Amino acid sequence: MAGRTIAIGDIHGCAQALAALLESVAPTQDDTIITLGDYVDRGPDSAGVIEQLLELQTRCRLICLIGNHEVLMLDALDTGATLFWRQAGGDATIESYGSLEKIPAAHIAFLTATQRYAENDTHFFVHANYEPQTPLAGQPDEVLLWQHLQQTPKRHCSGKIAVVGHTPQTNGRVLDAGHLVCIDTCCFGGFWLTAYETATGRVWQANNQGEIR
Ligand SMILES: [Mn+2]
Q1: Ligand 1: distance of its center to the CA of 193 in Å?
Q2: pLDDT of 163-173, one tens digit each?
């Protein structure tokens, strides 16, 4: 199979870290990048993150999953009831655009087009967690998008390795449990944004100072 498959963890408005990470990974047209959701909220520049992802679509095959923060944002925009979202980090997102009204239609279209999961022959990709015995298409929202890893779930019935985000690894390191890899390394909390190549296990990390390791 030509090209690399690389997952990127929870970005949360960390546009500088994303820029540094992408410069280091240097994706090409043959590569598939899968972002695991939570592009917005908490960090300083959600607008800049989505702008970069829109541009990245022109340079590689990009699959963007939905995270619980995209659900909160889209619900808030839909209903006009923004308080819950704002308290969950949405205030920082709104600030990055200047105001709610200035969020470009292209960014809302991007958020709306995000998908619930992705898979290839060896791995599957979801934002938060999974039920081991439930096929990917039938996973409930509260598990797929919201449930933290309390303990490591059993291997998924597909036999594939899970790549997830959502549960911040506050030591800044990838959690590798064999049949499950968690790559939310807590960039907005002052740690690292991770890119993880599934075939090799190679890890790239960048922080919001633009440092790489
Ligand atoms: Mn999340």
Answers
A1: 14
A2: 999 999 999 99
Domain coordinates in residue numbering, the chain: 5-206
Domain 5-206, CATH number (from 3.30.420.40, 3.60.21.10, 3.40.50.620, 3.90.1570.10): 3.60.21.10
Q: Give me the residues near ligand 1 (ion), CB cutoff below 5 Å.
A: 38, 67-68, 166
Ligand 1 midpoint to CA 170 (Å):
14
Short-list 175, 171, 145, 151, CA closest to 163? 175
User: Could you tell me the distance, in angstroms and rounded to a whole number, from the CA of residue 78 to the centre of ligand 1?
Assistant: 20
Q: Strands, DSSP E only, in 67-192?
A: 118-119, 123-125, 161-164, 175-176, 180-182
The amino acid that residue 81 corresponds to is A
Integer Cα distance of 145 and 18 in angstroms: 22
Residue 83: which residues within 8 A CB-CB, separation 6 or more? none
Rounded distance, CA 103 to CA 50, Å?
Answer: 11
1 has a pLDDT exceeding 60 = no
> Which of 4, 17, 28, 6 is CA-nearest to residue 186?
17
Q: Give 93's contacts (C-beta < 8 A, 6+ positions apart).
A: 13, 40, 41, 46, 47, 73
pTM of the predicted structure, to 2 decimals: 0.97
Tokens matching residue 17:
């870290």
